[in-house]
């Protein structure tokens, strides 16, 4: 038997050498992985306990590695000293390990990732630096959310509270710089920005941190994002508290280093926690699970067992715990798939000098790529939630808790999830089963007690006390100086716009240091597009004055709330009074008068035709009939016609005609009233349509946007436009008119026009405003001062101060009150009533056609059929027939008579025709006593 068994074994080895070796070597008794941590840090201590906890659970579970024992070789590395830390990490890589847990430091992770790529060893790191990617480092596997998601959560908080600028304080290393770069990108996507960035070294002294905070306190932003480690971060918060930077008006947002410190430390000094009241921070969201509950329940005993009794479980502990489990599950699949642990020396790694770095000792893991593939395929519910990697090697569904420090603890005020990219008070895991709702309107957070123990949301910025003096550009106008003017003697700017600006500044809760700088030479109005361009070019910090808010300007600048409404209007000369004795003819054009008069006569003739045969009121001598036609026609104008209409067709035509008369009469009355009571325009341009369609010259104010608007929007030729610089030029050019070198009309903004009309009474506004705009103060993009001044202008409007300033500078005279009416003296044209006349004409024609059709039918019944006649006599016969037809139509139609029978009692007799014409007349019995008379 032994001989047979040995022979079979030899045959198997010869035929299937790989299969036998695989079965014998696939499941080693012990598998070692490595771990690089910083033991003297909070995160490192928590991670060490979590690794040992995971090892205990894995090795006690026979279903995971099928009897193989998993071991972890943990090495300490110094994150503060980057060089020594890298040397220590490289020395650790001399040992043959098949996977590494860590490192926690981004600086060390960058170096080790290069080595891991060369040695093909999967690196299960919880370094959050977003620049560590699987594209550059294929063997880098991030086992917690990266800073891309953390900074997205921070930016969402900033945007939710409508803060536009923030100050970023960060530790100046890969972790800090790359994290703030990610924050900058996220804020920019939300139209926010980092106004000031300040970094510091990890070994910065107290005096350096103090100077840093003093500099920050002089900046305008009061929203401060702190992206550091635990030690320097706590130092900064303590120093800020001493500088009163934890008081009212400040906002502090710390990244997850603060939440990890508070979660992991069982006893935080009261002085430390009191100095950070109202601070917001974020924490990776860990959903509830069975593994999480089990780990939390035994954490206290584990931390005591491994000499970390002062540390509690933090989010990092959950992720590290799951990292070890992910390696164990991947190894199990790796061995099941025939994986073997073997190493090969890399000929490129050789230390010629014989130094302490034994590069030749580093070996390449032969099946590292296969193990990496198994790690990326793991899918299980761990202590940190769902452990599953996407195509980019990132954990799916990253989410964060938004927490506020209050009292002796923290309070969760909401959550941020990458699933919706929004803030919510609903747990992220409850959202995964529903379609993502990305509407910003659904965002919500619970109330916060801010620094300074206030529930009112901080403004987020102040005007810095040591800020430079703002240079504000003001137009130096030549005309309409009531809006803004420069006193050459004193150099002081005055006017309506200046008063609005200074009164609005007085409402701000902080002082603003500024200096007005005149723009323009004062001999002509400056071009306002050039003024606002200087704000865009940062030559001016702002521009105030009578600056119209136009679409092109808002594309480059931010404007305050408009402080006065303004739109383009048309100025045209007017006649003061109507002195024409024939003014009553002006409501209608000549064509309208002619068509209306002809319509009266036509309708009168049609009614006469329809009523002449059966209505005695429309019969008589030719003279009487003509008078009846004229009288009936024009009496309908006053609805005073006395003739009754008897035919159905006549009544139909009359109803339609009376409706037309009602419309014409009402329109005439309204137009005549307007002519006799309102001044009339003495120009061919009475509205926007006439302005565009005519060829007359048009005036505009120098420097106004009206020129470009008419050219680009109304397609008016630039050659028709004439620049005017003063009210005197306005009046002179309108008086001259186009024939004497003047203009037919002027297009300008309403505030200027109202001021002009307060002095010049022989012009008026034609039509209505054809643009809807306003005047505002111009500021650079995202200027907080623009927002506060807008609020102040609204306050001035509500308390009546804005109207008082208006009355002070722009109060109009009695002359203006008469001229500012929107006048349009266009006569009533025929085109406006053409539909009515067409309807009435169609009714008349249709009635006549029906009438003559009926008459022709009756005539053919009455007239016997013609006999055969010769061709020569045909013409005269036709003329006689036509004459007889018109004679038939002209004859009075006998009234329908009723022939009655003399009947006794209830008896009756049949009726018989007695008329000498072909008309049947019914019998009308008249009972008189017992005798019935027959009336014929």
UniProtKB/TrEMBL annotation:
Membrane topology according to the record: Multi-pass membrane protein
Function summary: Glutamate-gated receptor that probably acts as non-selective cation channel.
SUPFAM superfamilies registered for this protein in UniProt: Periplasmic binding protein-like I, Periplasmic binding protein-like II
One Pfam family this sequence matches: Lig_chan
UniProt xrefs under InterPro entries: ANF_lig-bd_rcpt, GABAb_receptor_plant_PBP1, Glu/Gly-bd, Ionotropic_Glu_rcpt, Iontro_rcpt_C, Iontropic_Glu_rcpt_pln, Peripla_BP_I
GO process terms (BP): cellular response to oxygen-containing compound; monoatomic ion transmembrane transport; response to wounding; signal transduction
Biased composition (Polar residues): 903-917
Upper taxonomic lineage: Eukaryota, Viridiplantae, Streptophyta, Embryophyta, Tracheophyta
One cellular component (GO) term of this entry: membrane
Similarity remark: Belongs to the glutamate-gated ion channel (TC 1.A.10.1) family.
Protein location: Membrane
Domain of life per record: Eukaryota
Matching PANTHER family: IONOTROPIC GLUTAMATE RECEPTOR
Region (Disordered) residue spans: 890-922
SS bond partners: 761-815
SMART domains associated with the record: PBPe (SM00079)
Signal peptide annotation: 1-21
Full protein name: Glutamate receptor
Bilayer-crossing regions: 590-610, 622-641, 653-678, 833-856
Organism of provenance: Urochloa decumbens
